[in-house]
Structure formats: structure tokens, C-alpha cells
Amino acid sequence: MDLDVKRYGSQYGIASGNGTCISFKLCSDSSIDSIIDGRTKSTQAIMPEIFKVDRYNVLSFGPDNREPNRVRDIIGKNRLLPELIEKQVRFLYGQGYYLYKHEVQENKPVRIPLSVPTINQWLDSWRENGIADGIDIYINKAIRDFYYMEGIWNKWRMYKSRRIGGILPVAGLETVNPTRCRFASTKDIDYGNYDDADFNYVLIGNWDNLNKKTLKVYPQFDYSNPNAFGVSISYNRNPSFGEDIYAYNKYFRGIEDWLKGANLTPSYINSFYENSLSVKLHVIIPYAWVDKKRVWLEELCSANAERQESNKDLIKVNGIDIGVNYSEDIMNKYVDSEIDKFTQYLSGAKNQGKAYFSYSTPGEDGKELSWRIEDVPLKYKEFISTLIDYDKRADEVLLSSKGVDASLSNISKDGVTSNSGANVFYNYMVYIATLYTAESVVLDAIQFALKLNFPKEHAEGIRIGILSLNNVQRLENTSPGDRMQNNNV
Fold first, then answer.
1. Separation CA 335–CA 426 (nearest Å)
2. CA nearest 38: which of 17, 55, 56?
3. DSSP states of 58-116 as a string?
4. Cβ pair 150, 248 in contact under 8 A
5. How many CA atoms lie within 13 A of 468 on its CB side?
6. Strand, coil or helix: 309
7. Could you give the CA distance from residue 479 to residue 447 in angstroms, rounded to a whole number?
8. What element of type H or E holds 258?
């Protein structure tokens, strides 16, 4: 087995590979004053609030202009949140969209489902109109963008005949990837004193590796003059406190550190299993051994000089070409090779190994000339138990941050002994009743498109809704045939 040995200056080094991790220090005493672990702290690039791209003043999305990317990357690595968010998407999407009109029944507002052929025909024709997705996929994507970023970028595609008395202005809507959209303006922006109206463009590109040639520029959708542009983009969001333009994922900010910790737990455990020894060792290598080997290598280099003059093959040590002129680099390579050989029987899946090497001087009596191996007691059970306890607590924090009861998320929770059907239905009913804000943001753009295309019907109170939110009722007020277990919700 060959280890990857890296040197940090003349004294420090790391040897790693195949389940082995060794840090070593070359010094003249036996003190261990530092351990190099090979990691460097990541730095986050801080960008100005407004930065320039060609002639556009772009509003940074987060301090590093990577807020959506950061949310995507950190949540994507978690074992719980992606599926939990997908459950929320399915809960809200329910059986899809429908048209309705509000009526008051028994002093309660009730949504009455409707069938309006002209509106249904338009909603069913999006792909025929050149729109990327049908209405169902559009709503599905919009819901997902809401749960990740609480904001939805909508691309408005208008009929070309909108200016000459065409039947309908809006051909359809498309969602745009939040990681690629940024507000921009050709105006001079007063730093810290601006609002949504100051940004008249939306730039779409890869902000991790920006290529100006592939950057796309769209006007921001103008609600006061919706027919102004054939293609434009609107941003429909759930407002964030203290934030004027972009929506920020509220629950993510509160649990970001928990997410990072939870994401690292599997790596810690796997690394522990891969690198741990059944008996941990601390190996002390006498400095006198180094001195002795240095003299020996110097003699071999001198011998090589004579062999070179006689056109003989040069001597190699542990496969190392030591050449004819001794240098400390040769000594370093030799030490690395000896560490490699010593570690082979300690490492890997069958010989689990992890050792720490240091050098000490001979004792005062001058007898410390051999390597000394000492046991290092480690508390395996406490280490693993601590990680598991942290993981459980992180699960509770993540679950509570999403407001989805354990009976709905199917994530086990300590102390829960019963999840009867009535209890599950009650939790489902309470959860669904909280989704009207989500629905209003998700359907904000399409409600306005409905108003533009069908002003008469809109004036009559016809709206588009999501079927999961249609008249949530108590279980005892629901007939057996209409209960959740008898419907594919």
C-alpha cells in the first residue's frame, strides 16, 4: 500500500490513504505541540450588495450571491429534508388544480368547484402554445420553488396577436430556476435605498461561473402594462421580514447550522469505522534513529558516486532513487517509506489502522534507541453515542422547523406510542389548513394571467385553486365515502 504523503514545511506531514490517516512531526524533543489535520477553513467570498455586469447593476442574492445555490446544496445533502419537502409538495398539490368560486354556506365561505370550458381549454393548451410545461408540471415546479426558496420566478409568454386584438394576451407561464435569476437595473442604484421597481431587468445565467456571452436578459414583468413585452419575468414571493426584494428561506436560516452538523454525522461515523484501530497506538520514534539513518544514507550516496564513475547501477533504498548527493529531501522520502511499511499491517478494512507518529530525543541515559509503542485509550461507545444523540436532536429540529407532524412525515419520534387513523387525519387537517399562504404565492402569477385572459370570469369571482385545500372538514363532518382513506389525496 502506498500512502499519499504531504509535507508542510520541513517538520510536519500527513500520510493518508486506504483507511489510514497519520500525522507526524519531526523534532528534537518528544513534545506534541500540534497536530496537522490537513483541512483548511473555507472562506466565503463577500460580494458587494450591488455589482456590475456589463451595463447592468445587479442585486446580489445573499452576501456571496449564492443564496439559492447554498440552500440547494445544503438541503440536498441532508437525508431527511429533500423527501420531507417532496411530501409537502405532494400535500399541497393534492389532486392538482381546479377552478372555483366562493360562496357562503351556513355563514362559512366555501369553495364551489366549477367547469369553465374556455378557461380549461386555455390551461390545457399551454404546450401547444410553445410553453415548456403543461399547467400541472408548472404548478408542481412552482410549489417546489416555494418550499425551497419561498419565491417563484415566472416567465410570461404572450401571444403575438396581443397588440392587434388577439383573443388572449397570455399564452402561458414557465418557472425559471431560482439559482440562475438575479434582479438587475440600468439605472443608478442608491445603495441600501431601493425597491422592487428600481430593477427593470432580470438576468439569467450561471452565477458560479458567469459567462457574459450566455447571459440572458429579460425585462421585469410590468403589472401596469402587461402587454409591453412578448417575454418577461415576474418574481412572486412570500415576503421576508427586513428584506425588500428577494425572499429568503425562513426556516433554513434558523436550522442551517443544524443541517450542516447533521450532514456531517455520516461522514464522521464512516471515517471512524474506516480509520479506527481496535487498539489505538502512539508510536515514538527516537531521533537517534533518524541521525543513524542520515549517516547511512550519506554513505550510500557516496557509494553511488563511485558506482556512477564505474558505470554501475546506482543503489536504491526502499525503491527511492537516492542519487549521488545527499539532501534532507532524501531523508524525508526515506522516513515516508518507513512509515508506509510500518502502517501497512495496521490499515485497511481487515487491519483497521490509525496511528500518530512523533520523534523524541534519546533519554538522559542515552538508551532510548528503539521505537516505543504505547496504547492510547479511546472511548468508542461514547463517541458513537454522542453522534447518534446529536443526530436525533437534529432530526427533531429539522422536523419542527417544517411544521410537519411525525405522523405525516413518517419520521419516527421518541415518545410517540400511537398514531391512530383519527390522529393522523387530525394532524393532516391542521397542516392543510395552514397552506393557504403557500397556495396564494404559488398561484399569484397564474391568477393575474387568468384576470388578463378572462376579465369577465375573473370579475365574477372565478379563481384557480389547488384541490387539496378544497373545504377541509372535521372527520365527523365527513361522510365515510369522502374520507381521506377512500380518496387518492
1. 68
2. 17
3. EEPSSTTS-HHHHHHHHHHT-SSHHHHHHHHHHHHHTT-EEEEEEEEETTEEEEEEE--
4. yes
5. 24
6. helix
7. 32
8. helix 250-275
Domain ranges of the chain: 4-40+277-377, 50-263+393-486
DSSP per-residue codes, 446-478: HHHHHHHH-HHHHHTTEEEEEGGGS----GGGS
Highest mean pLDDT among 170-184, 209-223, 382-396, 403-417: 170-184
| φ, ψ at 88 (rounded to 5°) | -65, -40
Asked if residue 7 lies in contact with residue 336, where contact means CB atoms within 8 angstroms, the answer is no
Tens-place pLDDT, residues 13-33: 555 555 554 555 554 443 333
Cell of 401: 422547523
Residues 421, 398: contact at Cβ < 8 Å? Answer: no
DSSP code at position 187: S
pLDDT in tens, 274-285: 655 444 566 677
Report pLDDT for 52.
87
> Which set of grid coordinates corresponds to residue 84?
420531507
For the CA atoms of 318, 319, 322, 327, the dihedral, rounded to the nearest 10 degrees, stands at: -60
Taking the C-alpha atoms of residue 126 and residue 237, their distance in angstroms, rounded to an integer, is 23
Secondary structure (DSSP) of 103-159: EEETTEEEEEEE--HHHHHHHHTTGGGT-SS-HHHHHHHHHHHHHHHSEEEEEEEE-
For 216, the enclosing helix (H) or strand (E) is strand 216-219
Q: Which residue has the cell 450561471?
A: 206
Is 462 within 8 Å of 99 (Cβ atoms)?
yes
pLDDT band at 422 (very low <50, low <70, confident <90, very high): low
Report pLDDT digits (tens) over 194-207. 888 889 999 999 98
pTM exceeding the 0.85 threshold for the entire prediction: no
Distance CA 50, CA 264 (A): 34
Nearest to 399 by CA among 414, 387, 411: 411
DSSP letter at 208 equals T
443 burial (CB, 10 Å; 0-12 / 13-18 / 19+) is buried
**pLDDT band for position 118 (50/70/90)?**
very high
CA distance 280 to 275: 10
Angle, to 10 degrees, between the axis of helix 328-344 and the axis of helix 287-309?
120
